Amino acid sequence: MTGAAGPTVDAEITWLLHRAAQRMHVVTGEQAEKHGLSLRDHIVMSALDKTPGMTQVELAKTLGLDKTTLMSLLDRLEQQGLVVRRADPRDRRARLPELTPAGDERRATVAAASTAAELAALSSFSAADVAVLRRMLFELIGTGTDPGSCL
Amino acid sequence: MTGAAGPTVDAEITWLLHRAAQRMHVVTGEQAEKHGLSLRDHIVMSALDKTPGMTQVELAKTLGLDKTTLMSLLDRLEQQGLVVRRADPRDRRARLPELTPAGDERRATVAAASTAAELAALSSFSAADVAVLRRMLFELIGTGTDPGSCL
DNA sequence: TATTGTTATACTCTATAACTATA
DNA sequence: TATAGTTATAGAGTATAACAATA
């Protein structure tokens, strides 16, 4: 497409990213589903663990989710008793989702299985390559996003 | 999550990939849409250009699309006069989609705009880093897929 | 029997708009 | 007026099942 350069790997980065994400979604998602969670459930719960005290809008922005998308995720997690929405004492409009003890236990279980699966899928790469990948993805996401959201 | 190691960038690779793909999808997709195509339309047409003579099943496998997903894409492209489905003389079940002259012209236009947008989005990275990224994504996709599909 | 193309269908993800209660 | 949460809804993207024609 660009011309004479690449031999086999000249496909669009956009589509390669899409398919790689799709594949890793399967790999880690099936770990989460073993414990009754979707990948996105797990992502939300990880964020609640790493950065507690966020409002729902802040949480959505951090994860790159639409606030309405986050709603259904939180609804389901709350219904399962894994998350509770607490009132923010400083702003009566806001609600602060947080993990319940049961939620945190589930989160830790899934986190272990998920990262293990991720490591296995990346096992053929050098640590340096993985570091490059991680840095590039992170910077790519940051482009166009306001700073401050450090996932 | 893994423990004490990473300072800021310790998020799951899976989610980073997802969001990076999402972002690049916007970047290159809006170029395609300037010319009346979706990103996926463009991906299909690029594949038809690079590897002509594939059946629909082969095309779907190459692109990592479900065959039923490909159907609606081809339907729309055929309806717009950008693609035709020709009969395979060697297998009367099979049909070989190919670009029309109009389709190839449109494809070339979108390809130029799309790769330019991709390059711009990746402009802050070194060529070596982009090469690492491309190679890793490619290998990641290959895992679990039968060889032979070289996109 | 297996495979290609096809249709119908459903489920998930995502985004938009509008409403409510606060600020 | 602006913002946080919420609801309803619609549009993509994806996958499953079933069918016809052909191998």
TrEMBL record, chains A, B:
Organism lineage: Bacteria, Bacillati, Actinomycetota, Actinomycetes, Propionibacteriales
Keyword set includes Cell membrane: no
Protein's name in the database: DNA-binding MarR family transcriptional regulator
InterPro entries assigned: HTH_MarR-typ, MarR/SlyA-like, Tscrpt_reg_MarR-type_CS, WH-like_DNA-bd_sf, WH_DNA-bd_sf
Single Gene Ontology MF annotation: DNA binding
Gene Ontology biological process: response to stress
Pfam families registered for this protein in UniProt: MarR_2
Keyword Transcription belongs to the record: yes
Organism: Microlunatus antarcticus
